[in-house]
Backbone:
């Protein structure tokens, strides 16, 4: 239904499992058969921001030797998870807002707009509303991203979740390391 298209903001301290919650939301939605694409908003160099999010055509700039599909296109009909959204600079926030409102992107070096249908799930360990009040985060973008807000309490307040998280990470690292992990001490 409509909730499968609703943007979600997950707030909580570092280490509370925000990305795990985002993946769970995706898995419980009608988008689960499409991609879940996770991006750390603070790790994108300024020079690569537009190319990474919107993509680029071959020869759009020096070194663009082939077409690059951007994150919005890669997450079309799926979920785009933006971690550390509170660190995104204002000029980037404007570009993000435009895509969310218009539901289309234009690759660098192209003129054709590409329609996209990405659900945006954001996470932050900062109080976004305080950043809005300090004019560090755009209020209109905040309202677009925070249709549903999930405040994750710190792990120290929900110790019953530790075994579930431990099981998740054992599976994850067993796959990454390609070896069975029997116990954690």
Residues:
């Amino acid at each position: 239904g409509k909730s499968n298209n609703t943007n979600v903001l997950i707030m909580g301290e570092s280490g509370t499992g925000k990305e795990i919650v985002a993946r769970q939301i995706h898995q419980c939605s009608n988008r689960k058969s499409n991609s879940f694409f996770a991006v750390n908003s603070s790790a994108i160099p300024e020079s690569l921001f537009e190319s990474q999010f919107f993509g680029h055509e071959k020869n759009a700039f020096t070194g663009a030797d082939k077409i690059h599909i951007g994150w919005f296109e890669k997450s079309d009909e799926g979920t785009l998870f933006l971690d550390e959204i509170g660190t995104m600079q204002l000029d980037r926030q404007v570009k993000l807002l435009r895509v969310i409102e218009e539901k289309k992107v234009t690759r660098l070096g192209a003129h054709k707009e590409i329609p996209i249908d990405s659900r945006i799930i954001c996470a932050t360990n900062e109080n976004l509303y305080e950043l809005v009040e300090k004019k560090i985060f755009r209020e209109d973008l905040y309202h677009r991203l925070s249709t549903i807000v999930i405040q994750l309490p710190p792990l120290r307040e929900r110790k019953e979740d530790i075994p579930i998280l431990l099981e998740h990470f054992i599976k994850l690292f067993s796959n990454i390391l390609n070896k069975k992990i029997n116990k954690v001490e």
Notes: Strands lie at 8-11, 36-40, 79-83, 104-105, 114-115, 119-124, 148-151. The longest strand covers residues 119-124. The helical segments are 18-27, 49-54, 71-74, 90-102, 128-133, 139-145, 162-177.
